[in-house]
Design a protein that fits this description.
The protein is α/β, with parallel strands linked by helices. It has a domain of 231 residues: Rossmann fold, CATH 3.40.50.720. The strands form 4 sheets. A 7-stranded parallel sheet has the order 3-2-1-4-5-6-11, sandwiched between helices. A two-stranded parallel sheet has the order 7-10. Strand 1, helix 1 and strand 2 form a beta-alpha-beta unit. Helix 1 crosses helix 8 and helix 7 packs across helix 11. The radius of gyration is 20 Å and the shape is globular. The structure holds nicotinamide-adenine-dinucleotide (NAD) and thymidine-5'-diphosphate. The site of thymidine-5'-diphosphate has 12 residues, from helix 7 and strand 8. Thymidine-5'-diphosphate binds next to helix 7 and strand 8.
């Protein structure tokens, strides 16, 4: 049996493939374009019998046809996307191409493949599309968390591109009967996350005594989900989810950015005491707010809990502590991703003092 995964060399893909291979010993074919966010070394230690990397673009229809006919996957998990809100603000075009045209091209290829399957193969085929809670827009402080019924109201080019993909996925179920499942998860954190996102950025900057950029007042709230909990939820959705349904996945850990940054500073002060600064919290700098910045995300996961038995297991502080340990223990990985491209990005987004 073979499972097709797209974007498997990124943060969530790497964690998902590692979990899947260790639990199920099933071969993964991983189609990844290896953008700045994809790292082939993340999975290099897996044997070829369990992991095949195909370097390519989900928006390349001819390549997709070849991959489907050569590897005959029993199902697929679609993760490939441009994933960073700030990059979508400075360059939305790539988000439309990879996230919308890419999803469409993959749906078309999957539809052609699905139509050629035998009835029992069709019965078990699944197209699991991994999306975000950001498609629902922004919550006020007293609003109830997002449910699967919340209206779509994306505010950034990133979330708009993910919303467009979700709509296409839904339409392929309603129109063509493709057995799709969508998951909408909250902010992930954990090992292998590219250090452009808040948590690894703060860990690495604080470790190196660089400034810690907090957008605006820092009171924006995110519902943090440890990537290991998310990957368990993805496995449940893939194996037991109902076609045509969407499932919200959250971590049950709402935290304001400034509080998250302060916890990380305390953890680093404890784990790597630094006589040059009394506390890393003194490195915090409030910088210009992100345009269209969503104030609060929170996810109601009662549906996936009720139907599939999912519950987040990692407590936020424990997850942050283990994430800090992972970045401290893996300096070679950090060096390999902090390339010239990364320094250019920091200069573009934060200005020269953050290079
Ligand atoms: P990531 O940026 O770490 O990795 C994305 C991967 O996709 C990379 O390996 C990259 O090379 C690959 N990729 C990008 N464009 C591609 C293309 N056109 N063709 C083939 N491969 C391509 O992202 P992530 O954090 O691992 O997120 C994975 C998925 O989960 C995305 O769809 C994202 O929208 C979604 N998601 C992420 C989060 C989060 O907190 N990280 C939260 C909600 C949803
Ligand atoms: P991020 O990790 O980019 O995820 P998302 O924008 O998808 O939620 O950002 C998490 C929160 O942290 C978000 O409210 C923006 C904020 N943030 C900062 O305050 N400073 C930063 O340098 C970054 C990257 C994010």
């Amino acid at each position: 049996m073979t499972l097709l995964v797209t974007g498997g060399c990124g943060f969530i893909g790497t964690n998902f493939i590692r979990l899947h291979v260790s639990e199920r010993r099933e071969r993964i074919v991983n189609l990844d374009k290896l953008t700045y966010a994809g790292n082939r070394r993340n999975l290099e230690d897996l044997p070829e019998s369990l992991h095949v990397l195909v370097e390519g673009d989900v928006a390349d229809g001819e390549l997709l046809k070849r991959v489907f006919s050569e590897y005959k996957p029993r199902a697929l998990v679609h993760l490939a996307a441009e994933s960073h809100v700030d990059r979508s603000i400075l360059g939305p075009g790539e988000f439309v191409r990879s996230n919308i045209v890419g999803a469409f091209t993959l749906l078309e290829a999957a539809r052609g493949y699905y139509e050629g399957l035998t009835p029992p193969e069709r019965e078990s085929f699944r197209f699991l599309s991994v999306s975000t809670d950001e498609v629902f827009g922004s919550l006020g402080p007293e609003d109830p968390p997002f449910t699967e019924e919340s209206p779509y109201a994306p505010n950034s080019p990133y979330s708009a591109s993910k919303a467009a993909a979700d709509h296409l996925v839904r339409a392929y179920h309603k129109t063509y009967g493709l057995p799709v499942i969508v998951t909408n998860c909250s902010n992930n954190y954990g090992p292998y996350q590219f250090p452009e996102k808040l948590i690894p950025l703060v860990i690495l900057n604080a470790l190196n005594l660089k400034k810690l950029p907090v957008y605006g007042d820092g009171r924006q709230i995110r519902d943090w989900l440890h990537v290991s909990d998310h990957c368990r939820a993805l496995s449940l959705a893939l194996e037991k989810g109902r076609p045509g349904e969407s499932y919200n996945v959250g971590g049950g850990a709402e935290s304001a950015n400034i509080d998250t940054v302060r916890i990380l500073c305390e953890l680093l002060d404890e784990k790597r005491p630094e006589p040059a600064v009394e506390s890393r919290a003194s490195l915090i700098e409030h910088v210009r707010d992100r345009p269209g910045h969503d104030r609060r995300y929170a996810v109601d996961c009662r549906k996936i809990e009720r139907e599939l038995g999912y519950r987040p297991l990692v407590r936020f502080k424990d997850g942050l502590s283990s994430a800090v340990d992972w970045y401290l223990d893996n300096p070679r990985w950090v060096e390999s991703v902090v390339s010239g491209e990364y320094r250019n990005w920091n200069r573009r987004n934060y200005g020269e003092s953050y290079e």
